Amino acid sequence: MALPFDAIPEVAIDYVRGVFRAANEKVSGAVSLHPSMHEETLDHILIMDLTASPPAFFATERVGICLESHWLGSRWMLGRWEIADIAFFILLRRQGTLLARKVALLQTKRLYSREIPAVQLDEADYQIGIGRLADRTDRTVPISSQRTFGFDSKSIYQATEAGHPQVDRIEEYSERRGIPVYYGFYNPLTLPFRTAYPALDGRAPEGGNAIGCRVTPAENVHSVVRKLDAGRSPSVNDITLPSPLDASDPSSTLGWRLENFIADEVLRCRQGRHFEDLTDPNLRALLYERSAPISAAITITIDIAEAG
Fold it and tell me: Which pTM does this prediction carry?
């Protein structure tokens, strides 16, 4: 019989929380310093910071933890829309033998500043490739002087639009496959947030990560989006929940902190999908079909020693 996920030692959960906390701070700092950074680049930052964390072994509990990633690429979907940007897989092993798996799918969206628009990538960007960065001959906005920019509760998650087909695609996929989808919202370190761009002397903003990346179930977001006029994007105010998702975090009306979502919700089996059957067809479709609806995957392997 497979070892239940509630047998994962607290030290392992705490380690995972710390790794995700550091990655959350890194990507939220990037939003704060680069107001027009593309979502795909923010995904890269998050993924690379997570996978740069060293494998850990805790001798007293006899448990090892390792994070790995696989980047499928920000491919143009040819008229389709991906269901999730990042899949988080939890692999529970005993002495190397696979016992059980969990998955949580994250569709990432960034908050847009009020002053500096961020242009989304389109099909031409994928066709042009490196040339769009290294072969610019048109005049660009100068960075030899500073501009101010900021985020507040009226700022919007522009890439999420009422009436967009992606909303229906996500709901159809989740219902058909039985795998829940969540939105991961990239926010600055605090809200409201205001600073100068480019940053003076390249210095990072001071203070901790009070807001940062937040995670909310797709059904909560979609219930808000469906009430908006077609083409409108939800603001921070719009997606704010009437009560916190995490009783210990009053600011979780904006969603779980990324690190708490993974450590306390997914690892403790409150969120995500647990696959007891290692050959489950829905899991295999996610992993192996050529049309798999994800762009990247993070695996968190937790290997527990034999009892006794």
Answer: 0.89
